[in-house]
């Protein structure tokens, strides 16, 4: 591993947002300690390290919160390509991942059908984006794992859970051959294998989480 000393990451294993820095740190061979943050209640270390947003993940170096900036960069060097990568990463985080969650909250066949339509429309966009961003390479980043790869890859375990719970085949190899092949490659990466949650374990966590959310919801 690298020469970095006292690198700690506040996060939790089910969180796709915690997956991103874990994969990036592994790719860059930076040794780190994962400090599991359960969020209920939030730890004093989290509140002190991220007093504004009070969210995970938080990367600490020698006790101080830091921004990850490694060389060679995970983002493309070309300004246009960098902007495109950020666009697709934001789309995945802010829109498509939310649509994927909606299908597990659907109560009727109509709601499930509508959610499935949005999910597959998004996967089609990502299949096309892979061709554009990858420029013939094995990754959204071209010849190397990049920012979009890490962003989408951090949701792969949750995609599998959604497939298991909903009965949908989201990354269908017949419909989306390039994304399906990309997902297999991503999960086989050494930097990913050690941090990718097991589907059954994550599914049990998801069921427990949904029961808690339903119990906390006001009765209609």
TrEMBL record:
Gene Ontology MF: a single term: glutathione transferase activity
GO term, biological process aspect, one: glutathione metabolic process
InterPro entries documented for this protein: Glutathione-S-Trfase_C-like, Glutathione-S-Trfase_C_sf, Glutathione_S-Trfase, Glutathione_S-Trfase_N, GST_C_Tau, Omega/Tau-like, Thioredoxin-like_sf
Keyword entries, A-Z: Cytoplasm, Transferase
Matches recorded under CDD domains: GST_C_Tau (cd03185)
Name the UniProt record assigns to this protein: Glutathione S-transferase
Organism: Spirodela intermedia (Intermediate duckweed)
Domain of life: Eukaryota
Lineage of source species: Eukaryota, Viridiplantae, Streptophyta, Embryophyta, Tracheophyta
């Amino acid at each position: 591993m690298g020469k970095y000393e006292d690198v700690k990451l506040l996060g939790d294993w089910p969180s796709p947002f915690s997956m991103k820095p874990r994969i990036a740190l592994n790719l860059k061979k930076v040794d780190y300690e994962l400090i599991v943050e359960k969020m209920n209640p939030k730890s004093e270390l989290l509140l002190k390290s991220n007093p504004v947003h009070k969210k995970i993940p938080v990367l600490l170096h020698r006790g101080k919160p830091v921004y990850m900036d490694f060389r060679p960069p995970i983002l493309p060097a070309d300004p246009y390509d960098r902007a495109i990568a950020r666009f697709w990463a934001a789309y995945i985080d802010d829109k498509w991942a939310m649509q994927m969650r909606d299908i597990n909250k659907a109560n009727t066949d109509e709601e499930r059908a509508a959610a499935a339509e949005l999910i597959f429309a998004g996967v089609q966009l990502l299949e096309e984006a892979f061709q554009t961003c990858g420029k013939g390479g094995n990754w959204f980043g071209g010849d190397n794992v990049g920012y979009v790869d890490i962003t989408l890859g951090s949701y792969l375990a949750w995609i599998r859970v959604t497939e298991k719970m909903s009965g949908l085949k989201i990354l269908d190899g017949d419909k989306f051959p390039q994304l399906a092949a990309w997902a297999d490659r991503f999960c086989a990466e050494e930097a990913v294998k050690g941090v990718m949650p097991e589907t059954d374990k994550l599914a049990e966590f998801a069921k427990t989480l949904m029961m808690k959310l339903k119990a906390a919801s006001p009765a209609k």
